[in-house]
Amino acid sequence: MTGSITAILLAGARPIADPLATAAGVPVKPLVPVGGEPMINRPARALLDHPAIGQVIVLTQRPDVFAADPATAWLADHPHVRFETGGQGIASSLLALLERGDLPFPILLTTADHVLLDRTMLDQFVAEASGADIAVAMVERATLLARYPDSRRTWLKFRDGWWSGANIFWFGSNKARPVIALWQEVEQDRKKGWKILAAFGPFALLGALLRVMTLRGGMGRIGRKFGLTARLVAMDSPEACIDADKPADVTLIEAILRG
User: Fold this and answer.
1) What is the residue range of 72's domain?
2) Where is pLDDT greater, at 162 or 57?
């Protein structure tokens, strides 16, 4: 799979001002300094340095601000990076790129605030997601709390544990389009797990509420519903679910980078 994966790095802005960007005095959150440089630089380098990734697409509403900032101008000049202007929704922007026909599968999608993304995480995710039509990286709560007991995340409870998203997604083939379309419908409620589950039917929602469904079983149900292979990648690295979303996250990330 050398150089065959298209990586999409989400570097957009929400409709309302981001508190981290406001506090740092920068126009968009991905330019917020973390560990002495704009947060986007670290995941961008991790993607570009991975041998399985052929190109990195930076999806943002403001490509101009990255070219204008001396610390991120290298992205605009890099031969394997291209900027695409996205809309207000991740899924709608992704569908628009797919409609153009110049976005080859497989696609690995991650976020500019995934500052701790590294080769080890990417190795595991690519190895376990390969062959699936869709895959989602998650971290089980015990994995995180064993190393970072004070870290606070958003958790979804299933029979096989409490899970938090790791902001790494896989779209392996054109079969993923219906799932992306569903994502478009529910992405405004991405922090409200029950609404996402409800989109897959009442039995999925009831199973989660009664704690009788495993997350892996839920992924299997998604696959059967859409006629595709859906896979959970349970990440070994607890850092995989620590993104730079709040000041406390930035403090923790910087401590990890120093260590």
Assistant:
1) 5-140+164-189+229-258
2) 57
